[in-house]
Amino acid sequence: MAAVPGEQANPKSVIDYRIKFMRRKTVGLYLLPGGVVEVRAPRRTSKKYINDFVQQHSDWLQERLEVQDLRVGEDFLVFGRPRKVVVVIAEARRIVLRAETLTVYLLAGDDDESLRRYLQSWMLTVAKRHLPRRLTLKAHWCRQLQVTEPALKLRYMRSRWGSCSAAGHINLSTALIQLPVAYADYVIAHELTHLRVFDHSVRFYQWMEQLLPEWRSMRKGIRQYSTGVELMQVSHYLHQ
User: Fold this and answer.
1) What CATH class has 76-222?
2) pTM of the predicted model as reported, rounded to 2 decimal places
3) Dihedrals phi, psi of 88, to nearest 5 degrees
4) 32 to each of 112, 124, 171, 188, how far by Cα in Å?
5) Which of the residues 77, 102, 207, 226 has the least number of beta carbons within 10 Å of its own beta carbon?
6) What residues does each domain of the chain span?
7) Do the beta carbons of residue 24 and residue 73 sit within 8 Å?
8) pLDDT tens for residues 121-179?
9) What range(s) does the YgjP-like metallopeptidase domain occupy (predicted)?
């Protein structure tokens, strides 16, 4: 790995990372499979600025690296229930979900990125069947908030469960299919409330209290979950 060693701003932690200069406006940190830390930065960004940026986020990176170590070969959650992931090399790609297993059939020559993209595509298919129905079942929340039932967009998001736009639609992460159903409802309540109150002011939480009195425990509970699709590797799950 062509890594650039970070300066030891924090004596407890030295982060090795590689830099990828590209057309973008901001600096971003990406944790890749195998524990590789990649910094993506605008082309004229100085290495000192990048190094300082990495060190400022060193605690977060160390925490994520530790989580990645724990994820090697771990189960995949579907609606909160763990399934053992099995990768099988076959003549056609498909995914079979059973009570205890999630079997991913890949083609010979498919790599880690193929596994992740195919699994994300499957998650989108499941989310399209599941999440719009949850929003419809909670349409009375829109009436309580006195907002129009929003358009719904679904996509895989690595770092958030949902978001909303000033244009009046909400985005939900397809990774919500990994969580118990109640957490999808919590995220829907959160994003619908933002259509009424765009910030996180006292008024926002007053409305949340009306929609979902248990929102505090739901917020605490959802923090124990995270999606790990972007870290999955074929070798961890390959059926021998």
Assistant:
1) alpha beta
2) 0.70
3) -125, 130
4) 11, 22, 25, 30
5) 226
6) 4-70, 76-222
7) no
8) 999 999 999 999 999 999 999 999 999 999 999 999 877 899 999 888 999 999 999 99
9) 25-223
DSSP designation for 102: E
Tokens of 42: 């605008």
152: number of CA atoms within 13 Å, CB side? 22
CA-CA distance, 173 to 162, in Å (whole number)?
A: 6
- 208 by Cβ neighbours in 10 Å (0-12 / 13-18 / 19+) ranks as buried
Residues shown for the chain: 240
Longest dimension (CA), the chain: 56
Helix, coil or strand: residue 188: helix
CA 65, 60, 9, 52 dihedral sign is positive
